[in-house]
């Protein structure tokens, strides 16, 4: 059977600030993220299986990515815990939806976090092949499994 890659696109909004950064992104600002998640596997070859012919049901991939990434982060303020402490945002209602990280919430670091979370929830016969995360229309980071063996 052939190995096939399937990709699903996701869109979500995140506000963030970069702690101790020496530019404008030290200030709270937002992005409209566009993310492409690609998994690889062999299509199911079982006429009795309702998913026959699929590598993964796009709805199943959507559920995993929404649970692991989109729902917790969409319209949340994403901050390194040092920024969260400085802003004293833990009990402030304007920061009601927070995603606090141990890392600097750059596009590069977030994509690594997302890859770990998504891969952990995929069926064992599938491989997370890549993630492409656009922070803006012209700026993005890419993660490939083969680069991270």
Give a description of the structure.
- The chain has 149 residues and is of the alpha/beta class.
- The protein has a domain of 103 residues: 6-pyruvoyl tetrahydropterin synthase/QueD (Tetrahydropterin Synthase, Chain A), CATH 3.30.479.10.
- The protein is built from three helices and six strands; from the N terminus they run ββαβαβαββ.
- A six-stranded mixed beta sheet has the order 4-3-1-2-5-6.
- The relative contact order is 0.19.
- The mean pLDDT is 93.
Q: Characteristics of this structure?
A:
Tetrahydropterin Synthase, Chain A; single chain; 6 strands; alpha/beta; 149 residues
As a percent range, the share of strand residues is 25-35%
Distance separating the two termini: 24 Å
Determine the CATH topology of the domain at 9-35 and 57-123 and 135-143: Tetrahydropterin Synthase, Chain A
Order of helices and strands: EEHEHEHEE
Rough outline:
elongated
Number of strands: 6
For the sheet with most strands, the description reads: 6 strands, mixed
CATH superfamily of the domain at 9-35 and 57-123 and 135-143: 6-pyruvoyl tetrahydropterin synthase/QueD
- The residue-averaged pLDDT reads 93
Structural classification: alpha/beta
Flag low-confidence runs.
none
Q: Architecture of the domain at 9-35 and 57-123 and 135-143, CATH level 2?
A: 2-Layer Sandwich
| Tally of individual helices | 3
Lateral strand order in the biggest sheet: 4-3-1-2-5-6
Write a concise synopsis of the structure shown:
The chain is α/β, with parallel strands linked by helices and 149 residues long.
């Amino acid at each position: 059977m052939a190995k096939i890659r399937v990709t699903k696109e996701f869109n979500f909004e995140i506000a963030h600030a970069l702690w101790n950064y020496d530019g404008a992104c030290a200030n709270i600002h937002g992005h409209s993220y566009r993310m492409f998640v690609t998994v690889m596997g062999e299509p199911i070859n079982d006429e009795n299986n309702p998913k026959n012919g699929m590598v993964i049901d796009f709805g199943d991939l959507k559920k995993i990515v929404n649970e692991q990434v989109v729902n917790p982060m969409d319209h949340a303020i994403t901050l390194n815990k040092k920024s969260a402490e400085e802003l004293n945002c833990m009990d402030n209602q304007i920061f009601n939806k927070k995603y606090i990280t141990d890392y600097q919430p750059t596009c590069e670091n977030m994509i690594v976090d997302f890859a770990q979370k998504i891969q952990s929830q995929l069926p064992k016969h599938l491989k997370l092949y890549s993630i492409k995360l656009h922070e803006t229309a012209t700026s993005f980071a890419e993660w490939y499994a083969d680069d991270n063996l």
